[in-house]
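=== RUN LOG ===
request id: a7f3
mode: sequence -> structure
chains: 1
length: 116
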Amino acid sequence: MSQEKTIFKKIIDKEIPAEIVYEDELCLAFHDVSPQAPVHVLLIPKKEIVNVASLEEEDRVLAGHLLMTVGKVARELGVDQDGYRVVANCGLNGGQSVDHLHLHILAGRQLNWPPG
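=== RESULT ===
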């Protein structure tokens, strides 16, 4: 019994195109196709993990790598000086729409609080 690939897994596997801004052996960052800010990039691990709540002890290094990569991507996009927001939606009430862990990097305008 095989589970259907998520859209993010298809991007990782290069089965569908994405505007990739960063890639290494552990993760991939690409522009969101439905941006909520002038800069809206998604950072995903190449390992299939459903969400933040699904992280295991064995994912400790990967989770740290993702957070460190956020800063690297922000610098490469030139948004590190003015600031940016990092969001990880978790579950239905958290607004998660793809069952693959992803961090939203939002920038390029003043972001309001509360977010919605």
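=== NOTES ===
The longest helix spans residues 60-77.
The chain has two helices and five strands.
=== END ===
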